[in-house]
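Changelog-linked ticket: 2'-deoxycytidine-5'-monophosphate example.
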Amino acid sequence: MIITIDGPTATGKSTIAKKLASSIGYIFYDTGAMYRMVALEMMRKKVPLEDEELLKTFLRDFECTIKVIRGERKYLIGEEDVTNLIRTEDVSKEASRVSKSPLVREKLVALQRKLAQGVNAVFEGRDMGTVVFPDAALKIFLTASDDIRAKRRLLELQERFPDQTFDFETVKKEMLARDEQDRTRAISPLVKAADAFEIDTSDLSLDEVNFRILECKDLAAQKRKAAK
Ligand code: DC
């Protein structure tokens, strides 16, 4: 069974997907991390998004893996651990840009569908419920106020990169610009699926969000039963 969680940046998708998955014995996938890995590698190899042939060759050879090492989730390009590197503001910006490319999306959507075969999993991202898994058993769309999201993003950056300083207004401005880009792109834009349950996480604790999702899971199961 597949559960999808979509929504804009810093609405708590990853933290919640992780919590939910562990509470019901599912695995979880952060698909934003996949776009981030592609973006990082394209930056390093200087692959221009506009050059279709170069991009196709790059994508054909691109391999990333997600491993759980001593309980910690690690993101690898080849053998290299890029878990922290993919969380910088530069990579955030570039991930939003490269995710507009149909070729990049085609590659990652195929990978996501492959990972979903025969498993119970929570997938979080932007187009999980709308495009990648339109028949998912349960679809959640998370939201939160701009200020709360920017605060969460700032905290994440400060925790990951304690040697650097970050400015709240800049983080907020860049976050809103990426949201706009994700919402307005031509293919698979960030949008709530018609059959998704929307939860505003601004004033909710992690446990409260998880509880609400479990309620939605029961509701969705009842609806499926009634439709049979
Ligand atoms: O969730 P995140 O901030 O790590 O995602 C990084 C970027 O990747 C985001 O700006 C949009 C893109 N993305 C996407 O287009 N589709 C997904 N399923 C997940 C992320």
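Closing comment: Example verified and attached. The pocket of 2'-deoxycytidine-5'-monophosphate is lined by residues 9, 31-33, 35-36, 95-96, 99, 125-128, 178, 182 (CB under 6 Å). The beta strands are 2-6, 27-30, 64-69, 72-77, 80-81, 121-125, 138-143, 197-200.
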